[in-house]
Write a structure and sequence with these properties.
mainly alpha, about 0% strand, elongated
Amino acid sequence: MNYKSAILELYDEGIPQAEKTRPETEEYKAAVREMEQVRKKLEENLPEAKVKLLNQFESAYNQYTGCELAESYRQGMCLGIRITAEAFMSGKE
């Protein structure tokens, strides 16, 4: 049986996608627009076979970064729990 971290399970299944927030900054919005513009230019200028390759790369990259995001979430939760535990225990002394 494969063990799955309760924290990662919460990330994967317990938090609706809509709640996995994205920045609301202008910098982020500009970066999204830039990425969309570059993608559109690539699709217009690449042969169909290369567009397929681009789509495969994008899919692999999204999977790769998704793993990083989940791990960042897990580590952040662990740190927060350790800080909370330490604060709770320090009040008992």
